[in-house]
């Protein structure tokens, strides 16, 4: 059975609250899970210690059983020092998108047109 350590959403509309759970990978996001391992409340300030609460002992157990954390949970575990930090590389992050590139080209052409007319006079 493929196990995941992931977030299960709770809370009302526009007021999210997540549980960090160990679940079968085939179950839906908010569906059946095996064990609740912690909580995550994104509405709290980033420096608030209650924003992310984890049961380190049980998380270590599930990692030992072969459970794979999702990307977001892996970042929580790295911050808590439960797993080794992995190097991430996203070379396209700083590259502007297609629409932004087109807007910049139009603006450059528009700005260059009056300069050419002034130089011709």
Using only C-alpha atoms, the radius of gyration works out to 23 Å
Low-confidence stretches: none
Q: Report how far apart the termini are.
A: 77 Å
Briefly, what CATH class of the domain at 3-80? Alpha Beta
**Number of DSSP strand runs:** 5
- Please report which band the strand proportion falls in: under 5%, 5-15%, 15-25%, 25-35%, 35-45% or over 45%: 15-25%
Shape call: elongated
Explain what the structure shows:
It is a single chain. This protein is an alpha+beta fold. It has a domain of 78 residues: S16 Ribosomal Protein, Chain: A, CATH 3.30.1320. The protein has three helices and five strands, in the order ββββαβαα. The chain is elongated, with a radius of gyration of 23 Å. The model has no long low-confidence stretch (mean pLDDT 88). InterPro entries: Ribosomal_bS16, Ribosomal_bS16_dom_sf.
């Amino acid at each position: 059975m493929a196990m995941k350590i992931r977030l299960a959403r709770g809370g009302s509309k526009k007021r999210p609250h997540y549980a960090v759970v160990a679940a079968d990978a085939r179950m839906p996001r908010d569906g059946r899970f095996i064990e609740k391992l912690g909580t995550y409340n994104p509405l709290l300030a980033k420096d608030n210690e209650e924003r992310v609460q984890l049961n380190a002992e049980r998380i270590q157990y599930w990692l030992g059983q072969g459970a794979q954390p999702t990307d977001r949970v892996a970042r929580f575990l790295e911050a808590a020092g439960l797993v080794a930090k992995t190097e991430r590389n996203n070379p396209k992050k700083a590259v502007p998108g297609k629409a932004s590139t087109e807007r910049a080209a139009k603006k450059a052409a528009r700005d260059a047109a009056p300069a050419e007319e002034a130089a011709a006079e």
